[in-house]
Amino acid sequence: MPKQIERWAKIGGMMEDNPGLPYEFVKQAIISKAEKDTGKLEPYEFG
Predict the structure, then answer these.
(1) For residues 21 and 3, what is the distance between their CA atoms, to the nearest angstrom?
(2) Which of 2, 12, 26, 30 is most exposed by smallest CB count within 10 Å?
(3) Measured distance CA(24)–CA(19) in Å, rounded
(4) How would you classify residue 26: left for phi > 0, otherwise alpha for psi between -120 and 50, otherwise beta?
(5) What angle do CA 10, 16, 17 make, to 5 degrees?
(6) Reduced to 3 states, what is the DSSP secondary structure of residue 45?
(7) Which Pfam families match (predicted)?
(8) Which phi and psi angles does 23 have, rounded to 5°?
(9) SS3 label, residue 22
């Protein structure tokens, strides 16, 4: 339960700081950062 509260607090804070951003964008930004922090991303190669 504490992790879920922390997650919603983080989303709420980002939404207050950036009222023009859609919720889905903020949610995906948080997910992307978590994936980066845990090493779950693969490098993108252009061309």
Answers:
(1) 23
(2) 2
(3) 12
(4) alpha
(5) 90
(6) coil
(7) ParD_like
(8) -55, -45
(9) coil
How far is the CA of 5 from the CAs of 8, 42, 43, 47, in angstroms?
A: 5, 29, 32, 42
Q: Are 10 and 30 in contact (CB under 8 A)?
A: yes
Residue 26 is which amino acid?
V
Amino acid identity, position 33: K
Q: Which of 46, 4, 24, 1 is nearest to 14 (CA)?
A: 24
d(CA 19, CA 27): 13
- The C-alpha angle with vertex 16 and arms to 11 and 22, in degrees rounded to 5, equals 65
Q: Is the pTM of this model over 0.85?
A: no
